[in-house]
């Protein structure tokens, strides 16, 4: 570059030092790199070994030599410039420089830690040993003082479960059964006589044929003797055959008479009464506890023990009579009777409420079937109807509907065999002998309990409007048909998984009309400010599966319907197209809704999302949410004697909640055995008892003990 001033003179500055290009000597490291790159093979120190360095390393060495350290970041060198400089350096090197030995020094670089896991153990002789021992002692004291300390609180958390993994094993389940029979002494005697008669008759027949087939003789005398002997043999054989036939006839007549006696109505009735008496004798203490009667004690059993106890008491009174009198006088002088009454009340309050198992409705016929629903008779409070069927599609098999009585807890009074699993049932109020049964395939059947015939009176199989999904709940509902409200009619209402709530007309055949078609509703989600609108997915079905319903206890024109979406719709019988309200709070299918019988504005709902929610019909937000354990809630029911008490059936346990005591934890929790799951609950109508159905086909009867809220009917609402 040349610099000129305003007058055009060359004022370019000249360098103070003119370097000689031939006198430039590069550094040893760079010369080594360049010689190694361009030489290919070296001599001297390297011997015959070949050294090759990549083009990038040579370029870096030249750049390090030509560019100053401070300006490396701001300088960019093209590949052509680098190649030109390499050629210049190659021309400057002489033969002596190439033959000269070069010293290379290898030094250790700094250690780079990729993974550092500090040890959890410290040597006793280290400097931090005392401090760590002190920390361990403080932690041990904290763990020791944790039980019962107010500073530690246990809290349940809902976490996301990992994906389930199915593992298949080629092994058939071993099914074991216990079978037995009862044999009486006369059964043994008759069978022994039959075995004894058969071989004797065969021996007699063979003897008679041998007597007849005797050899002929030539002489007359022998012929005469032969005729006599043959006649005698024939007479003896005929008498023996006639005797055996008489015995066989007598045995057949005895069997015929015994069959006539066993099949006679008089004998069956006598056996029925005998069975009733035996059941009452066996279950008398438990039935008395169920009905809250005093338990009677057999006087014959306790007579001897009472005599011995009385004799011991008399002997003690003679020995310590004076001492007892003195002590009783001292107690009467110093103890106030009011204090004793207060102490008794405190002792009653200290005893916690509990569930005591009385008995179970179970037999061999119901073993292995899951209890799906239960219902009391509207007229006879001792008659219970139980439906047996599975909720899962893979576990479906033939169902049962049994009617149990308190008079015989070991065998049902009526057994109705069903082709499909029973999912719901209920007794009629207008005709108490009619039992409506809903099944998994969507059919509805009505049985007559009074009849001994197990065939259905009416069936929906011929109806063109029958359900195409499982009937999850059905109920007989009384409604006012007239304007004055004097006349009431009964209707059979069903809800099914096909999204329909139907009303069934009971005439010569069953037919139904749609009360409501449950439509799917879009979930209302709050959009974030930066979130874009997503396209709505196409629905497979426009109808939502119905799971449960419950009519208002005072106004039967309104009812609630729970769906598989987790929504609860308030509906009206006069409006079949629109919902009055929709309650959103559950994240899973709603399995049960129930109005409070005392506070008719409140209702409960349970779901597969492990929660129970208390609602007010005027508010679409939940009032209270109860979630005590991570388990599906299959069934709930309000107590018929208290506005605060309700029962919940979870898979692992049964819970009794008393809202007047606590809204955080249940007052009673009864845990199930490892091989069973609780599926349904039902309060007794006339006693303080609870019925619980499980997955093994048993219906347990439990007595509620020390639950004070059952005696209170006051209603208090808390928002």
From TrEMBL:
It is found in: Cytoplasm, Cytoskeleton, Flagellum axoneme; Dynein axonemal particle. GO terms for biological process: cilium movement. The lineage of its organism: Eukaryota, Metazoa, Chordata, Craniata, Vertebrata. Residues 1-22, 35-83, 202-245 are annotated as: Disordered. Residues 46-61, 226-245 have a biased composition (Low complexity). InterPro entries: Dynein_IC, WD40/YVTN_repeat-like_dom_sf, WD40_repeat_dom_sf, WD40_rpt. This is Dynein axonemal intermediate chain 4. It holds the Pfam family WD40. WD repeats lie at residues 583-625, 626-660. It comes from Rissa tridactyla (Black-legged kittiwake). GO terms for cellular component: axonemal dynein complex; dynein axonemal particle. Keywords: Cell projection, Cilium, Cytoplasm, Cytoskeleton, Flagellum, Repeat, WD repeat. GO terms for molecular function: dynein heavy chain binding; dynein light chain binding. Residues 9-21 have a biased composition (Basic and acidic residues).
